[in-house]
Amino acid sequence: MAMNFEQARVNMVENQVRPWEVLDARVLDVLGTVRREDFVAVEHRKLAFADLCLPLGHGEVMMKPVIEGRVLQALELSPTDQVLEIGTGSGFLTACMAKLSAHVTSLDIHADFITTATERLAHAGITNAKLEVGEAVAAWQPAGLFDAVVVSGAVYQIPQRFLSWLKPGGRLLAVRGESPVQQVVLLTHEGNGRYREESLFETDLPYLKHAEPPRRFVF
Q1: What global pTM score does this model have?
Q2: Beta bridge partners of 108
Q3: H-type alpha helices, 76-171
Q4: Contact (CB, 8 A) for 186 and 171
C-alpha cells in the first residue's frame, strides 16, 4: 500500500511537533509544507515523519522533527534575517530556514552532502540559500555577519569564532556538551562582547568534526 505522505506530514505536525510546545504558527506552517520525504534517502522515505533521527552517512544524522521544530521556533527568524547554518546535512532544515528568512548560507564538511542538498533545494524551489563545502571549527571564514547562526552538529564547547560571526542582537543556537546528555542552548549577542545564554532542552547528536570532547587517557 502506498504511503499517504500528506497525512503523515499532518500527523507529524499535530501529534509530534505541536505537543512538544512548538506553537509558532509560521514554524508549524513551514513544517507542514516543506516536503520532508524529499530530503531523505529513498530507502528512508517511509520513515521521514517518524520520531527518530535518520542516518545520513559519514556518521551524521538528520534531526528528529520535534527537534527541528524547537530549533526553528527558538531562532524566531524574521523575513529580513541573514542566517548561517553550520552542518547542512540533508538540507531540510536549510529549506525551512530559507522559507522563514531572507537568505541562508549553509556549510558542510562533506562535499556529497552539499551536492545532494543542492539538488533537493532546487527541486523544492528554494532560491535564497547558498551552500558551501568547508570546515567551520578552524578554517572557513564568512564574508559578513549574521542575524542567526545555527550549529546543527554537536560541539563540546562553542568556538569563540562562531560567536564573532553574529551581528549585535543576533542569536546562535548550538548543541553543546558531552554525549549522551547534551544541551541545546541559545546565545543572544547583547553587544560589547556580552552574550545572554538560555538552555532550551536536552538531546544527543554526533559532533562536528574538530569539535569533539578532548580525549581522556586511562592508565
Answers
A1: 0.94
A2: 133
A3: 92-100, 111-123, 160-163
A4: yes
